[in-house]
Amino acid sequence: MGDAINRAFDSIKSFHGTSQDNSRDWCDRAEIIFDAFNVNDADRLSRIGIKLEDAAFDWYRDNQRPYGTWMVFRQTFERAFPAPERTQNPHLVAEQINQRKQGSDESVHDYYYALDKLCREYDPQMSAIDKTIKLVGGLREELRKIITIECSNTRTIYDTSEEL
After folding, report:
1. Can you tell me the distance from the alpha carbon of 25 to that of 116, in angstroms, rounded to the nearest whole number?
2. What's the number of domains the chain is made of?
3. In CA terms, which of 19, 61, 96, 124 is 20 to 30 Å from 87?
4. Distance between CA 7 and CA 105 in Å, rounded?
């Protein structure tokens, strides 16, 4: 098990805490790697400091309180190092979401992930139904006509649209 944990941590890039670093994306990637290697919260929390450098390491050194879970650490970490998108005007991001339409030569894949990124920037906790409404509303007309009510979530809509 120790070898798997070492491989997991070797796979995670260091986080420096600069204005170019995106803490949300970094944590998302770390979680995917941790889950792939079945790294539990205790191991995540005891070793995460080795992946922090510069300003991020200074913050970690000054804030080494006992975090009960990875999620508590993550929330505290993301507050300390807000993702660059979160510093944007939320009204501007909302407007971008509302105006986002699938381009005539844009694949469903590219449209889906571009819209998903905007939704996560605006509200990381946005419900699946709200994302679905935004996704369907921006699809090209011919695709929107094919999508039916049975497509109850964004992944189903994405999968169905990709098959067309």
Report:
1. 13
2. 2
3. 61
4. 40
| Claim to verify: residue 32 and residue 54 sit in the same structural domain | yes
Burial class (CB in 10 A: 0-12, 13-18, 19+), 145: exposed
Which amino acid is it at 94? A
Rg of the Cα trace of the chain?
19
Average pLDDT over residues 104-113: 91
Token pair 């339409």 is found at: 101
Same-domain pairing of 70 and 133: no
The mean pLDDT of the chain is 86
Per-residue model confidence as pLDDT tens digits over 16-60: 999 888 898 899 999 999 999 999 999 999 999 999 999 999 999
Q: Are both 78 and 13 inside the same structural domain?
A: yes
Q: What number of residues does the chain have?
A: 164
Domain span at residue 37 reads 2-85
